[in-house]
């Protein structure tokens, strides 16, 4: 007959009873009178960082400008093309020739066109002078009636823009008018060249280009336009869905990635249309946009595709925390190790998020430690303990200390107990 180990059974029963009783008392301890400890094995520290909200989309490279070239059959008879599709041309290069039908009529037409262009050039130059002579008020005045680049007709009660905004508008308008001036001067040069040919030769005129770019189309059947030229300057064109249209506006920074070339750069959102490319009842509308590049790579070609990230919002130099260290019931909160070394539940207010990092608007400061795992161990105002990471201990350096220092620190440790 097997001997029963009575003492062992009694000891086992006592241990189970002890554990059960303590667990039951803790369960009933609504007032938290029992001193509890939390075991935490993962922490995270708040840091100061720059966060961005980004919208993912796609776009394709296209020519910044397209210029159609027309031929008026009433002034002459077409003779021949001097360019082919794919040719790269510069301003002043020959495009095509035609034979004049009525010398005096064509001469009068070219002279009239030259006079018109000269008047437009004079007007543009005067406008540029007006803009350049305009002094941006600092601080801004309430009456902006004298602002030559303000398109707002109601100036009596309008709030003037800031000094920086107005200065930017001024420079932008000057650049716009200088580009138009260059275009009109090139047109005048082309017309004067045709007039000179007519007066020298009398019957055949060679039409030159007022535009630099690539010949994208040649109309062999002489249907209008006779030629289509595209500028070598590239922009990105794409569309965004109506759900994201309100989040975008001009001048936003865009991160650009061209996978085929392993090329990355940044650009600027130069335009976002207010009207969709088409409207359908049962389909989400899409709004065209354009992105410009400041210094594009020479390897880029029209038709290449790119992945874009439009930066719609940013918070620079803000306190951030990892998302997994934050919890929410009704309000967002975190478990923080406070100055006394006690675990504290603290309500926080958050801002934008990026790649697992969350902006902290209030509730946390830079450099605070947040408990991450295990979450079922988190208790408010609880003392905690955490595992010892032996990899962080410099054991060998301990034994390199002087013997007297080891004895001193050892005694201090014993006395502190």
UniProtKB/TrEMBL annotation:
Which residues are listed as membrane-spanning?
9-28
Question: Low complexity bias located where?
Answer: 143-152
Coiled-coil positions are 100-127, 165-201
Annotated region (Disordered), positions in chain: 133-161
Question: Which terms in the GO cellular component ontology are assigned?
Answer: cell envelope
Q: Which residue ranges does the record assign to the YknX-like barrel-sandwich hybrid domain? A: 68-223
Q: Where does the secretion signal sit in this chain?
A: none
Protein name as catalogued: Transporter
User: Which organism is this protein's natural source?
Assistant: Halobacillus faecis
């Amino acid at each position: 007959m097997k001997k029963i180990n009575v003492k062992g059974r009694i000891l086992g029963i006592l241990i189970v009873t002890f554990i059960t009783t303590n667990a039951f008392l803790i369960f009933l301890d609504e007032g938290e009178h029992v001193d509890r400890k939390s075991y935490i094995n993962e922490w995270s520290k708040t840091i100061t960082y720059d966060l961005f909200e980004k919208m993912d989309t796609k776009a394709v490279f296209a020519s910044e400008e397209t210029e159609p070239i027309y031929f008026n059959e009433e002034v002459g008879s077409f003779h021949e093309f001097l360019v082919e599709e794919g040719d790269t041309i510069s301003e002043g290069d020959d495009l095509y020739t035609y034979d004049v039908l009525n010398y005096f009529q064509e001469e009068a037409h070219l002279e009239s066109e030259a006079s018109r262009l000269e008047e437009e050039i004079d007007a543009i130059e005067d406008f540029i002078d007006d803009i350049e002579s305009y002094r941006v008020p600092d601080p801004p005045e309430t009456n902006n009636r004298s602002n030559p680049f303000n398109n707002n007709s109601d100036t009596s009660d309008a709030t003037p823009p800031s000094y920086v905004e107005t200065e930017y508008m001024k420079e932008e308008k000057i650049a716009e008018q200088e580009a138009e001036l260059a275009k009109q001067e090139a047109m005048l040069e082309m017309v004067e060249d045709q007039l000179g040919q007519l007066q020298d030769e009398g019957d055949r005129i060679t039409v030159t280009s007022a535009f630099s770019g690539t010949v994208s189309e040649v109309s062999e059947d002489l249907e209008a336009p006779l030629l289509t030229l595209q500028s070598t300057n590239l922009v990105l064109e794409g569309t965004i869905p109506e759900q994201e249209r309100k989040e975008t506006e001009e001048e936003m920074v865009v991160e650009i990635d061209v996978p085929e070339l392993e090329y990355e750069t940044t650009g600027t959102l130069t335009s976002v249309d207010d009207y969709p490319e088409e409207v359908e009842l049962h389909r989400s509308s899409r709004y065209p946009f354009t992105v410009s590049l400041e210094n594009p790579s020479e390897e880029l070609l029209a038709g290449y595709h790119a992945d874009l990230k439009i930066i719609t919002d940013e918070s620079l130099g803000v306190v951030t925390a990892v998302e997994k260290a934050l919890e929410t019931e009704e309000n967002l909160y975190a478990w923080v190790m406070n100055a006394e070394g006690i675990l504290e539940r603290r309500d926080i207010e958050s801002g934008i998020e990026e790649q697992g990092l969350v902006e902290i608007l209030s509730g946390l400061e830079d450099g605070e430690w947040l408990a991450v795992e295990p979450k079922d161990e988190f208790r408010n105002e609880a003392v905690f303990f955490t595992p010892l990471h032996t990899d962080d201990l410099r054991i060998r350096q301990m034994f390199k200390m002087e013997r007297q220092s080891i004895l001193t620190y050892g005694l201090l440790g014993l006395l502190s107990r």
